[in-house]
Amino acid sequence: MNTLSLRSWMVVFLLITLCIGCASPSQPTRFYRLDAGSNNLGPIDLTPRPGGVVIGIDEVQLAGYLDRPQIIERSSSHRLKLYEFDQWAGSLQENLLGLVRERIQQQLSAMQIIAYPWPQGLKPDYELKLAIQRFERVEGRIELQGLWTLVETDRRKIVLMQQNRLQEPIQGSTIEAGVAAASEAVSKLSEQIAEQMLRQIESEKVR
User: Fewer CB near the last or first residue (10 Å), C or N of the chain?
Assistant: First the structure.
C-alpha cells in the first residue's frame, strides 16, 4: 500500500470515529404539566342550569416569549434562560385554561364555568378573557402576571378589567419544584379572579 492510500484510509478512519462520537445518545428531555391537585376533582356537569349564571373562559393568551415548549427562567433583568431538556408537556395554553377553569369552578360552585369552545347548548352570560403577561422562574420564586377582563356576553360590554401580580416561593432547587410552585401561583390567580368576578356579578344583580 503506497503512502497516499495509507493517508486516505487514515482520513476515512478519523471521519468514522468522529461520526460515531457525534451519534452518541443525547440528554433525554423531561416533560412537565401544571397540576395543583386537580385530579382529585369530581366530574364536570355540563348540563344547562336554568336561571344559573354561566361563565365562559376564553382561550388563554400567552405573551410571545412564553409561547414555546421550553421552561423559562429569568437570569437577569434583560436575559432569559430556556431549559432545552425541561419542557411543557403538550400545550401550555390548554394546560393553563384547564387549571384556571377547575379552580374557578371550585370557588364559584353555585355558577357554571365552561371553557372555550363552549359545549353545545350552553351560552355563557359572561366571558372571561385572560392574558398571561409574565410567567417565569426568578431565582427562588415564580412570578406570574395576568391581565383579565370580564365581558357581559349579550351587550359585549366589559364590566371589569384587572391586572393581577403574584409571587410564589419555590420549595427546592429542581425544575419540578418550580413547576409545583407555578401550579400554586396559577391556582391563587384563579382564586383571586373568582373572588373579584363574584363581587362584580353580585353588584350587577342589585342594579
Answer: C
